[in-house]
Amino acid sequence: FLNIENNAIGISGQVAEEGFSKAFLNLTSLEELHLSNNHIQYLSNNSLLQLKNLRILNLRNNLLESFDVKISHMLNLSYLDLSKNILQELSENTFNAIEKISEHHKFTVNIQNNNLKCGCAQIRFLTWLHKVRNSGRLKIMYSKCTHPNGTVWKLKGNQLVRITLVQP
What we know:
This is Trophoblast glycoprotein-like. A hairpin with a 5-residue loop joins β7 and β8 (152-156). The mean pLDDT is 84. By secondary structure, the protein is an alpha/beta fold. Helices cover 16% and strands 19% of the residues.
């Protein structure tokens, strides 16, 4: 268990540049990593490669715009928290890895309270999200997305439903 929450470690340019890879080099037995509230803006693709035994990865409340970190080797991962970031979508590599992990056991991914987009460029992501959202072993916690024209949509059951915002 490693809790590095609330330390603003993402403010350092060196952290983003090295992508945490050196920090986690010898932590191959680590099962829980809590990095919430750290102003992390970027994680490199290989930054968590050494953490093959991770069960919980908490990146809640950071400044991540994207998440294209290799996680497919984390076959024990059961909870990934990416909520309260500024994610616009998950990469295809990420959703393929999420599906792979969920073939082994139940897996929850929290992507609530992000800046998820739901335009034409995100069709593959939205189609994937619709397909797997609450399938047997995989639970995606998801709130809403925004179309480029400003319309806000929520995934309700099997369809996107427009949310009507009340103007003051």
